[in-house]
Structure formats: structure tokens, C-alpha cells
Amino acid sequence: MISRRQAFRGLVSMFGAAPWLSSQDGANINWDDPLYGPINIFDFRDLAKKKLDPMAWDYLEGGSEDEQALRDARDAFKNLIIRPRMLVDTSKIDTSLTLFGKKLEYPIILDPAGGKNCFFRGGELEVAKAAHNAKALHITNGGIDDLVESGKGPDTWWQLTTGGNLMNKQIRKAFVKRLEDSGCAGICFTVDIMHVSHRERDMHNKLERAWCESGLPPRDTNGQLPKAKNPWRAGIYPSRSSPLPTWETLSELVNDTKLPVIVKGIMIGEDAERCVKHGAKGIIVSTHGARQMDHIGAPVEALPECVKAVNGKIPVLVDGGFRRGTDILKGLALGATAVCIARPYLYGMAAFGQRGVERVLELLRTELALNMGLAGVPNVAAIDRSLVRWRWEHKA
Ligand SMILES: Cc1cc2nc3c(=O)[nH]c(=O)nc-3n(C[C@H](O)[C@H](O)[C@H](O)COP(=O)(O)O)c2cc1C
To answer: Where in the sequence is the domain holding 204, given as residue range(s)?
Structure first.
């Protein structure tokens, strides 16, 4: 039987030693390692589904209510057509960029994701270690301080907040001081989760939300999980005991820290403009993975109006449904500076822990580089709006 490496070498000779192919023969890779079984994000998705308890899987994969926004996030990419440019020298492809003064090797950022312990014990640390090895920017949910101190944490990391640390001046100041002292590169303020939505898969499953912090308990011999003490329920009027963050909260945070503050969860141009006005240094156009408000369309559909509204004053990032190098290319062409991902790396983590996260990043960044080569854009600066058209747009 011929090995995968021999087959690859055969391909190279068949295509007359195409320079890109011959430089990528993967000689140091043990292709028999199960890590190299999955060849794309969808293969990792299948593996993760097989590996996880169905309840954990639903928590990872699901969206809210009708999951319309979840389907839209993927479907929107079908309506974006790449306009490839031929006979451009793409012998050297450079995916690097600079974001807030830091050089990144590629425009793929690891999004925050709570509840990682439901998918892999110590998941946050697995991801942080992978980010270090893969030199990716990691937006952490927290708890990686010791790793960062040991020098094995991500080189560049941003801390997530959803407003709990911003309630009053004292708490806010202590929060930003801790981050500034520990080498944090930025603060990501998620603004679309002021109320927790109805994630109906989790409601039907009677998921105890706390399990996703501590880890899903093992099922008993009858396949039963313990009865949830505090499951998610429908039909409860939304109110909170204390006021929720407002634009004023954003201004206060910005004024209290030297770190750049980026706002995650923006979906309309007017809010993108408000972010600039209130001192945010960047935004993430996002629907929270379609896990919060439903029926709000796809982030890539909202991206152009947000890009237009900020008018180049701050970087615009985007997330939601990015599974392919071509998806990333499309996001960049619509004006995003970088793209963030959550489920793809969670699939990798569920399947193989840290190594799975690294491999997912490797697959996505090489797919991006390959498609940049095929589209005739040797570097990210060459990617502009003319590289894509909506299916219904016609270039004269
Ligand atoms: C399991 C899971 C947990 C998440 N937890 C958070 C969170 O704690 N804070 C947050 O801002 N976004 C959270 N998100 C949303 C992601 O950061 C991101 O916006 C979204 O999932 C991107 O879409 P993608 O999963 O299709 O890549 C979570 C997403 C998933 C799948």
C-alpha cells in the first residue's frame, strides 16, 4: 500500500513540480497520527460530535430559538463570489498583518468561548497553550494567568468582559490594573449578552449551565446525568437586579485603561459609529455565534455597513460561521482586518485538546494562504472589495 506521503510526492511530480506543492511536502509529519485524519473543519466537527456527550455537543453547536441566524451565518457565504486575478506572482504568500501595533502571522483570532470544560477538561488552558505555539491572538475568558506567567501562554491575549467587572469605578479600576500588570494586550467587551437567550436545545436537554463551567458529570450506568438543580427555563420575564452597561460604561472603561478596548457583538452601522465616538479601538461584528438574538442575519451581511460607518478609523473584525480559507478571504475582502473563530477550534479541542486547536489553525491558515495564491492576492493588503461580489451584483 502506498503511504499518504508517497501519494503526495506522486502528485507533485504529476503536476510538473508546481513550486508551491514542492515546498510543502509535509516531510516531518507523521501522517498516521489520528490528528491528521481530518482534512478540514467539517471533518473535525464530525469527530467532535462523535466524541462528546450529546448534551455537550448541543451546547457547543446550538444557537438560540429558531437557529435562523445560525443557518444564515453559513448560508451568507454562498452569496459571496470570489473574483480571482490571474497571472499575479504569488510565489510568496504573506498572510501577516499588524493589529494595534502587534504583528500577527495570520488574520485568524481565537474568540472567547465560555464552558470549555464541557468539551475538554482544562479547555481554556489547552487553547491558551495552542495559541502560544500557533502564535495566534487569543481572547480569553480568564484563568490563564499562571500559564502567561510561566511564558507558555499566548504571546498576545485580550481579556473578555461582559460588564460584571465594570459595575463601579472601584471594581473596574481593579480589573484593568490586574490586566495591565499581567501583560494583557487588550480588553474585549461583549455587549450582546445582557440577557441570556433561549437556547432551546439546552432547554430541552435540561442542561445545568454550571456544568459547562465545571465539566459535564459522567452519565450513570443507565446513561442518565444527575438531575439539573437549576435548568434553563422558558417563560420567565427578563429583569435584572442592577442596571446593565450602557455606552457610558464603555466610555468609562476606555478612560480608565491604557489598553485598547474592542467591542464585540455589533451588527448595525449606527452602533459601529457609536463605538468610535465612545473611544473603542476596534469592533467585532458578531451575533455571538447565533447564540443570543435570533433573526438578525449573518455577520458578513452586516459587515459592509459597519465598515462604512467606522470609515477606517478603527479596525473592524468579524466572526460567525467562518469554516474555510475562502470564507476568511471573503470577510477580509468586505473590509474586515481579521476574522475570529470559536466553534472550529472548539471542535479541534474536543477531538484532540491543544493539538487539535493547533491543527485547526494550521488548516485554516494554509487554506487561506492557498486561496490567496489561487485568487492572485499575495498579501493581505492586496485583498480589497473588488475581490468579491454578491451573487446578485454584476460588474460592468
Ligand atoms: C460554546 C460557545 C461558548 C461561547 N461563549 C462566549 C462567551 O463566553 N463570550 C462571548 O463573547 N462569546 C461567546 N461565544 C461566541 C463566540 O465568541 C463567537 O462570537 C461565535 O461563536 C463565532 O462564531 P463561530 O462559532 O461560528 O466561529 C461562544 C460560542 C460558543 C460556540
So the answer is: 42-216+246-389
Taking the C-alpha atoms of residue 27 and residue 192, their distance in angstroms, rounded to an integer, is 45
**Identified catalytic residue from 132, 138, 278, 288:** 288
In a domain, 224, yes or no: no
pTM: 0.94
Residue with cell 494550521: 362
The residue whose CB lies within 8 Å of the most ligand 1 atoms, and thus the one to mutate among 75, 291, 303, is: 291
Q: Tens digit of pLDDT for each residue in 277-331?
A: 999 999 999 999 999 999 999 999 999 999 999 999 999 999 999 999 999 999 9
- Establish whether 288 is a catalytic residue: yes
- Which atom of ligand 1 approaches the CA of 320 most closely? 23
Q: How does pLDDT run across 3-39, given as a tens digit for each residue?
A: 555 554 444 444 444 554 455 678 889 999 999 999 9
Whichever domain contains 330, its CATH number is: 3.20.20.70
288 lines ligand 1 (CB under 6 A): yes
Residue 350 in any domain: the answer is: yes
Stretches where the chain sits below pLDDT 50 are 8-17, 20-21
Domain annotation covers residue 241: no
**158 bridge partner residues:** 139, 186
| Cβ atoms 265, 189 nearer than 8 A | no
Asked whether residue 28 is domain-assigned, the answer is: no
CA torsion angle for 283, 284, 285, 286 (degrees, to 10)?
A: -140
- What is the total count of domains within the chain? 1
